[in-house]
Amino acid sequence: MNPLQVIFLLFLIIPFIEIYLLLKIGAIVGVFPTIFLVVFTAVLGAWLLRQQGLATWLRLQESLAKGTIPAFEMIEGPILLVGGALLLTPGFFTDILGFLCLIPATRKKLANYIIAKGIITTTGAAPGQQAPKSGPSNVIEGEYKKED
Fold this sequence. Notes:
Elements: H1 3-29, H2 31-66, H3 71-88, H4 92-102, H5 104-116
């Protein structure tokens, strides 16, 4: 299936799931507790996003200071961004997905999955391409001067 079709289907299906869950939970606990839960999860999600984002940023800086490539941190950043956007979207289904993106264990599993499937590579090559070789090449370093 085309990725554009998947995104289109998600934009159609997710609002129906959200409305269904909001109506069911509203029928069980009432209108105002449901509204409170939606607002509370948004506030809690913003706080967790700030905390996890700062921790990821500090690990990224630490990796750079050591001279290592911060591969996981570079993948975790967009996962945190998506998780934060999902938490700020009103609804319970998106909140569950957003919280899964903010939990370090599930975020690490998701980052490992992304690397294992080759969606994003940590070698500098685009997905589906081979990594650049680090061995000797046919390039000869030098200087030249053009004379008339």
